[in-house]
Amino acid sequence: MDDSTLKSLRVCTKKNEVLQLVPVFSKSVKEYTLCVGSDTDGVVVSASPSEGDAFVQVQKSAANGVVGIQEGASDIIVKCDAADGSSSKTVIHVFRPSANDATLKALQFSCGMIEPDFHRLETAYVLRIAPTDSDVTVTATPTNATAKVVSHGTGPNGSVKITANETEVSFEVTSADGTLKQAYSLLLRKDKVGSRLVLNKDCKINASHTCSICCCTLYLPRSKPATSKCTHEFCLTCFELFGAALKDSNKLEMDCFLCVDACGKVLARTDAEKDAVLSTMKYECPFRCTVSAIEAPLVLGHVMECVAGKPVDECGECCEIGAGIHKDACVFQCELCAKRVPAWTKSLHESLTCLSKRKPVDAVLLAESAGWQQAFVDKKSLPATVEGCVKAVEPLLKQYLTSLAAAWKSSEDTFGANPSPPDVSCLAQMAKLYATAISINIETKKVKGGVLDESLHIELGLVMEEMESCEAMFPAVETRAVKVKANDNDEASDSFMSDEVDGLLMGLGVAKSASDASKLKAMEEEFRRLTAAGLSDQAAEVQGLHQWKVKKVNAGSNVTSTDKNNSLQQEQRGSGRLAKALSKYEDVVSLNPGNSDAQYNSGRVNLILGHFEKAQLCFEHAIAARPGFKNAIFLFAVAVLFQSKPASFLAVFSVNVIERQLLQFQTNLWLEIKETKQEHDLKLCDTIMHLASPLLRASFLALSRGYMFSGKISKASKPVLDLLYILPAAMRKLSKKSHAWRSMAATLCEARQFLVQLWTLCAPVDPMLTLLDKRNCESLLRMVLSVAEGQGGGEWFRVVENVCRVLLYRAPVDTVALTMLGKAQLDLVDNDARFLGDEKKLQDAIECFEAALGVGEGVKLVEKQEWFVRMKEEVGCWELAAKSKDVKVAAGLKAGAKKTAGVPVKAVPVAKAAPPAKSVPPPSKPVPSKPAPPVKATQKATAVDKYGTTAAPKTQGTTKPTSKKSSTVTSKNTTPKASNVSLSKTKSLSTTLQKITTLPMYETSIGLARAISRKVGFIEDQSGPKDARIPALVESITTHYNHAIKSKPGAHDAYIELGALLERKVSIRAAADIYAAFPFRDFRSGGGTDPGQDDLYLYTELGRCFMKEKRYKEVLLVDCLVAEGRAMGMPCLGKYVEALDAAGESKLLMQVYAGVSKKPVDHPDLQAFFKSRYWI
Fold first, then answer.
1. Please, is 81 exposed, middle or buried when counting C-beta atoms within 10 Å of its C-beta (0-12, 13-18, 19+)?
2. Among candidates 20, 16, 9, which has minimal Cα distance to 89?
3. Does residue 279 contact residue 296 with C-beta atoms inside 8 Å?
4. The pTM is what?
5. Residue 484, strand partner residues
6. Do residues 781 and 996 touch, judged by C-beta distance below 8 A?
7. Are 44 and 12 in contact (CB under 8 A)?
8. Quick one: what percent of the chain has pLDDT higher than 90?
9. Phi and psi dihedrals of 273, rounded to 5?
10. In this structure, how many other beta carbons lie within 10 angstroms of the beta carbon of residue 122?
């Protein structure tokens, strides 16, 4: 076929001046952009075809070849027709500015990266420049060459002298005819770099000089409107990380997510006054040189020249060479095992890792290959030898590392907004090659003898781990795959049926964690009940759902495992590819316990999973086999310090190891400023010294713990603050959708939490902690809750739980912390697979809620919980270490200190729990009751006696059984008073935490009611619905729901959940009374809006109950039917209309029809309809 492409394309003015096309001409490009001056009314387009016999035509060109150009945007089309009839079109998009055009054509700069990408209609930009840049040249080119550009803040030729971290430049463009003006702003900004700087002792700062997120001295503090009530402060990095997208820096403002109800506002622009104050501060050199008072603008220059900040030459033995001279003896020869050991690890070797002191571990036969490994084997299309498979891996690894480096660069350049994922197909092919090589190696050994190649198993494990890390770091780009319509319909049908089954089971009080047999049994009983009651239509619906559930159970899909042993095993081994990688490392360890690489990798994965003792043992084996294994020694130290009671000599050794490693890491952070950008030439699983690695982040916290164990409490906060300083900047370069970002956010919260924990012992010797403490406690919970709300998942429920534990340990009678902890524990029982059906976790939640309400033994039970005892023991170890160093501990700050006279406490709720799904009932029939929240399993009672009777709230210091009369909303039980428990001498955190939320009692009461409901569900699952303990528990649940309703009468959740409970356990009439007690607003009067979703659901349930009980005279029945009719249409009320018509309730029906149509009853159209139905 002949070629219809162009060989050349050239555009000139009438004066034969060549105009530049964008992009540069290429025969494969079919669209170009061309900007001309306002005085250019025509251009000459010259084009030649690739084939000599092709014909080229420039459309709309005159006889002399000139194409007229109008003001504004227009297109020039060049068509090329080949001899065989094929053709192609090339389009040139031309823009000719008008005389009143006041826009810029381009912004050019000598260095830096501009955000967002330039467009002539975008007027606000940020130019990010390197910290070492002292001047930048900025050139603004107008779209109309005759327009006038005036710059503000630039010198001759557009040069800008940078003397601060943020410099503003603006350009004013005046159109050629002088009628229009347009201003462009450009902010030249230096991001914070390096490691945290410590203020000179003579500098005094207050809480307003520290960031509410990272707790560090503010860098480019954000300003606030004059009317803002926000008391929080944000540095630039944290503001961009959690709050803002890049827009007009002079106008952008965000709601402060740390303020109650987002009442505070924060602006994107810098607070110049506060920044000027902070720029006068003096800092110490981060590398401990003799200079101790460096002015802020001079810090960077000093660090770049500081001798102590230069990297040391590396020695494979000791890493202690400076200026070419060994500082200490490089190695020593162990007389017992004859190994050469780095001198600085001599104490560890002699006491622990010397092979002569370790028990030999016998090798075992390699187990059969796992099924997942066999699935990768492909002997047909892959090389037939081990050597061939290994050789085929090399180009794939090179290709993957190249794509990984590109992914890192795109993620950093776009700040995580548009990262290009690495080529994971290379990893998949590498896994096939290694699995095939292993299979060939095993078969060869069986036939010809020889040895098994251990490295193949390790490499396969590393590939699987790399795939897991790659997925966590760079989430896959979502694409809309083309699916068969039938498959889409099947998926939609399954989703609908699954929702219907879940709703039915929730209504029946069956927990999500219940076994499939229990769920099917409950559905069968409901079918028999409905059949006996004559409700054939509803019984048929339940029968259909039962049949679908049976089909899914038999197919083995959507089955939730409730076997606790399986859950714990999965938790211990990790999930997905990480578990597969660990299994390969363990295979090699079992085959050859002396393989240092296998031991190291096994220890590394166990450390990630939180198995510190097992990780320590693996690292000991690795170090024993290879004494100079730097990474193994470093991670060994981390594993040691994360244990609750490390040996004292190991704690001291581990502190020294991590100090050395982190000092080198922080040195590299400063060196990267003047050197070329760091190249990512390692696989993700091999990259330890990068903040994306959870192991490096853990080392900062481990060092802080090590300082506490070794009695150096004055240093304990430094590693935590160092981590808080550098972590937000690293998070800014990752996608918020990635698991790595979520993991780093969890570490950020964990570090803040650890500062609260340190304050108890360290405040007397660390003034910085005292300065940060109030703000830290006040904002920590709000920050964790805000991030958790956006992220969700069991991982974040655990973060919330850990934060609440620390806050509660600080003040054991703080009702806010008690309520928050109870809610977090209940969320874990509901949503985390590790705690599904966990009786102990549920009982802990019940005890926390009861302590907040002053029920039963209250705080005493919480202080006996396992986590509280463990934390108390750990703090006791810290205190003992501090006393050995003669450090005075703050009196009265420890948990369990003597308490003062009783002070009433209030329960303060937290973020509103997710209400049950508010699906609207299907048309033409009443629907089953709206389900209450899922009922989870537990065995222990909530503050119960030996018969399972729940203790009632204390009133005037006594405890009385709950009366059965309290089972309805008309109960005369009063809201439970606070327990007669006194506060500790320290100020309770309630005074600060109450800023989180202000509604008293509600969250605590409804949380306790929900927790006991889940207990009831477990009892029913184990012993059946007739268990003797259930009536008392149901009575207690009712009481707590009533307390929640009294505390917050307008909250829907309590009415919905209590109504569903009473319908199942008491009667429909009792449920209707609860629904009717809700304070509905009038929506039928003139100007009233239709009910919202929550109100509509209550109206629907109340109407269903009234109709089922034939309570046709109830005043609210009309409102219920009108609300449902307006939302769903009159056809959905068909059965109700038939029933009311048969009962002779014509007046009620006329009111309903009039209300739905929003017309008066006497409207002519309605009157005709009413007559046709014989209602009048």
1. middle
2. 9
3. yes
4. 0.76
5. none
6. yes
7. yes
8. 27
9. -65, -45
10. 15
